[in-house]
Amino acid sequence: MGELRIAVLIDADNVPYANISEMLEEVSKSGNPTIKRIYADWTKPNASGWKNVLLEHAITPIQQYSYTSGKNSSDSALIIDAMDILYSHKVDGFCIVSSDSDFTRLATRLREAGMKVIGIGEKKTPLPFITACDKFVYIEILKSTSSPAKSETKKQTSKKPSAPLNKVDTKLVDLLRNSVMDLADDTGWTFLGELGSFILKNKPDFDPRNYGFQKLLPLIKSTDAFEVDIRETANRNTKHIYIRIKK
Questions:
Q1: This prediction's pTM
Q2: In angstroms, rounded to a whole number, what is the distance separating the alpha carbons of residues 105 and 11?
Q3: CA 234 – CA 79 distance, rounded (Å)
């Protein structure tokens, strides 16, 4: 099977535009964003920030007028488009960029149809939408890993890096320990490559970057609760990493 084709649907009313480059880079880690659409009432001044980045990233703007004050007009247009795309059979997955829980049922329905569903939103995103996705990425961790603009380089380098979203605590260690026990072989060892996928199935917003680490292994080592075994393979350039709970 080739690279996943992903439809990226952005709710402009509920996410900031500043990190669109990092959002699309994140999507590209999972597949090829073949459809990119963004929904807003473009007659409103609060959508002006998005207008400057649409051409740069080849995102198609979809106009949705606000017929009722105080309601997010983009929701229905995005949902209708998502279902149209689903039945067109042109994609293998969706990325819904929003912090709005109104897309919970949509994410659930797309997964029922066999689609991979990625969510991207702010930390304030309600839990039902997060858990309805296969994977959920917080915009805040994309902000902390993005490169500063050239004009801001000197100013930014003197600042401390952004703090992680979560602390490495007993709750995280228990999650890792229970997952290792569920996957372990008779000798207690668990293949690291399987561990990350297993945790993500149970906790879609799990990401080492939430704790200030770029990869899972450094996060695991920081807990000092596990043994690590790096094993050679037939390919000299490839090593398999196994972990088990310290006795």
A1: 0.86
A2: 15
A3: 48
